[in-house]
Structure formats: C-alpha cells, structure tokens
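Running this now, will post back.
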Amino acid sequence: MVTNAGLKDIPGKPLPETDIPALELVSVSYSYGKRQALDDVTFSIAPGTCAVLLGLNGAGKTTLFSLISHLYATRHGHIHVFGHDIDRRPGNALRHLGIVFQARTLDLDLSIYQNLSYHASLHGIGKRDADRRIHEFMQSIDMSDRLHEKTRSLSGGQIRRVEIIRALIHRPSLLLLDEATVGLDIKSRATILADIRKLVQEKNISVLWATHLIDEVAYADQIIVLNQGRLVANGPVGEVVKDAGAQTINEAFSRLTGVLALDTGRQL
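Update: finished.
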C-alpha cells in the first residue's frame, strides 16, 4: 500500500510497451585474480518489473551491480540495457539507468537543491527543465519546503529518498538500488518501498533491488538468488518457492544457499 508520505504524483510519463528486456545478462562471469566472483550468470528483467536480488555477503551482488553500472568492464558475457550493450554502447545504455548505491553519496555541505541541480547538469538537463523536475519531485515527497536546506539537516530516511529522486531526475527506465534501506527505521523503509512500487506500477519503471531483508519481497516480484557467484534461482516468488520444495521465500532461500535464514523482517 502506498502511504500519503510516499510519492504522490511522480513526474514523467509511462514508458511504451516493449518486448526488449529492461536488463539482460548472458553468460556473465567475473574474477578477481583466481577468485571467481560471478560464474556464468544469465537472467533478464522485463520492462515494468520489480526484481529483487537476494544473496549472502560474497554472493556477487556488488560485483553484479558494478558491471551493470559500467564501473567494471564485462570480461566474459554480455549485458544489455534495453537492447544496448553496456560495453559497446555505454552511453546509450547508461542513459536508461538510475542508480542508488548503498553508501550515501550526497554532499552534506550542499543544499538539497544544489545536490539535485548538479546531478541534472551532468545529464545535460537545462536549468529551467531541471528546476521544474526538482520542484515536482520534492513536492511529491512533501519536502519542497526544505529544498534549500543543507542536506546534513535531513534524517537517514529523508537523505535516501532524495538520493532516489536524484537517480530519477533524468527519467531513467531502469532503476538499480543497492541495499537502499540499510540502517533505516521501519517507517522509513516502508515509505521507500511504497515509493518504488508505485514507480513500477504507475510509470512502468523497471527495478533491480538488492536487499538482505525478506519482508522487502512482495509476492508479485521477480526473485533472483545468487550463491557464491552462481545463479541458483530466478523467477516469480511462488515459482521459486515451489521449485525449492519450500513453503515460504525464507525457507526457499535457506535451501538454495544452504544457510539458515532468520525470521521475516530480519537480515538473511
């Protein structure tokens, strides 16, 4: 359920229907010297899909995000973002991407407006258009009155929501979120989850969400499970649970990784 604290009217128009995957990985492998971080990973995400990436520490999630965001070059296999090869046509691919990394990356000594307008300028968005988008987005989360405050005055949850807005300024069609709710309270987590799911439902934005929290998984999500660099499950929640011979996604994760998962709402 989307709360009143969430994005009330997200700027932008729904994307047209397309048969091209929002994200497609084909036989992707990556090594750090002799250590294999990813081993022949293949999966795709359809447009307008919320996909949740689950995996223990060391499973390969961070490496996967680094390859998709082109921080690392793909050495083996191929990655396509809406049909654009991330290595051969990085400019075209990256224009479709909005990224929120786990580490906080806003400049705390700048105002919220300065942080957002600087990012808009990096995407070649003119000042008038950038100002309009910034005000629309800040209104949508009931924070327009704080636009010119120093970023350090915000709570952890508010900072994360501004980071998500920053990732959406250029209106991407695929949003990557790496542990976006780590360290946040229950209310902040619920608000951010509601914001993201509204983007998927109403604006047809595709999402790849890496998390360690079982209660952030919804039944309608696509689940992608990595274990020691290998893809061990991929599909709708119900299908993954059934194929694992389990009753819940928590139990399925335990069976797929060989590690006992904790109760719902706690870290895996």
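The chain has one domain: 23-257. More later if anyone needs it.
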